[in-house]
Amino acid sequence: MTVSRREFIAQSGSCAAHLALVGAVWPAAAQRMWSESNRGSIVAREPFGNLEKISDGVWALISTPFNNDRTTLSNGGIIAGRNGILAIEGFNQQAGATWLAAKTRDLTGKWPTHVALTHYHGDHANGLAGYFGLAVGGNKPIVRSTQRTRELVVERNKPADPSRESALKDAVVLSGSEPTTIDLGGKVVRVVPRSGHTDSDVSLELEDPSIVFAGDLLWNGIFPNYVDAVPTKLATAVRELRRAKDTTYSPGTAPSRAPRITTATSQCSARSRTRHESHMRPERASRMPALHSHCLRPSASGRCSTRRCLGRRLPRGIKS
Ligand SMILES: [Zn+2]
């Protein structure tokens, strides 16, 4: 695939470009570990990602962006209720959305009835039109995004794509200030407006089972893309995402995990917390239920090894 200089400049701040940079410097072993890690049972495996069942009627697509396949790049998911099915994210290319729609039909017998975008970045939104058209049986799902996300997709995601804009034209606008719900029948998805990764993010949340699709507010195991981020808002958003019960978090990028994230004690400075929480690694927190979950780099000696926290001893009984 060739990318013109103009396209590169337009895309160089996106999460896709960020992943390309990270991929260039990440060790091959770490990339392989990412591709192979999973927590659910894999129901479909592709060069661009794995579709994992994480609960009855809930699947997470965990993309493997370092495999040189740009079909999806971002993570996404499916939440199926009795009356409706929500597909999460539009992905990097239309083929990614079309693939997820087809998998939805394989798994549930129905095409997606709703599509939600967590934020505007191209790897989450550019393939949106793939949910529409003949390739998916003439399907016409209801697209949901905030007004700001819709504006940003049109303004910033290049090259422009009339089919993407057409798919967004009749989108149901989500509140940018108050949580709303999507009732799928037996599953009510809470859509919570947030910000911090971009000017307008949303998380998609289920209560029982406790599952959070966090978009790029969470990056698991990889340094996040800060190009649009406001660190103080991002830290607040991540803090608010934490639940005091076992919860599966599906990050926007990197493998999902099932951590016990606690509302933990704070031993780091506020500035340090901001940094740590924005790339919270829930799998570490899951092994440290009593530990402050923002500070996830304890050393074998039981001392936190991050620079700002260096020397602080972990609570007794907590192993690194
Ligand atoms: Zn993003």
Instruction: Write down the domain tally.
Output: 1
**SSE order:** HHHEEEEEHEHEHHEEEEEHEHH
CATH architecture: 4-Layer Sandwich
Spans with pLDDT under 50 lasting ≥5 residues?
1-12, 257-320
* CATH fourth-tier homologous superfamily: Ribonuclease Z/Hydroxyacylglutathione hydrolase-like
Write out the strand line-up for the largest beta sheet, numbering strands in chain order: 1-2-3-4-5-6-7-8
Q: Look at the structure and give the mean pLDDT.
A: 76
- Which overall shape is indicated by the principal axes computed on the Cα atoms? globular
**Structural class, please?**
alpha/beta
Task: Give a brief outline of the structure.
With 320 residues, the chain is α/β, with parallel strands linked by helices. It contains ten helices and 13 strands. The chain has one domain (5-286): Ribonuclease Z/Hydroxyacylglutathione hydrolase-like (Metallo-beta-lactamase, Chain A, 4-Layer Sandwich).
Annotate the secondary structure layout.
Blueprint (H helix, E strand, L loop, with lengths): L4 H7 L3 H11 L2 H9 L4 E6 L2 E7 L2 E6 L12 E5 L4 E4 L5 H15 L5 E3 L5 H4 L16 E5 H10 L5 H8 L2 E3 L5 E4 L4 E7 L6 E6 L4 E9 L11 H11 L6 E6 L16 H9 L3 H5 L34
Parallel strand pairs: 5-6, 6-7, 7-8, 12-13
Antiparallel strand pairs: 1-2, 2-3, 3-4, 4-5, 9-10, 10-11, 11-12
Zinc ion binds next to loops.
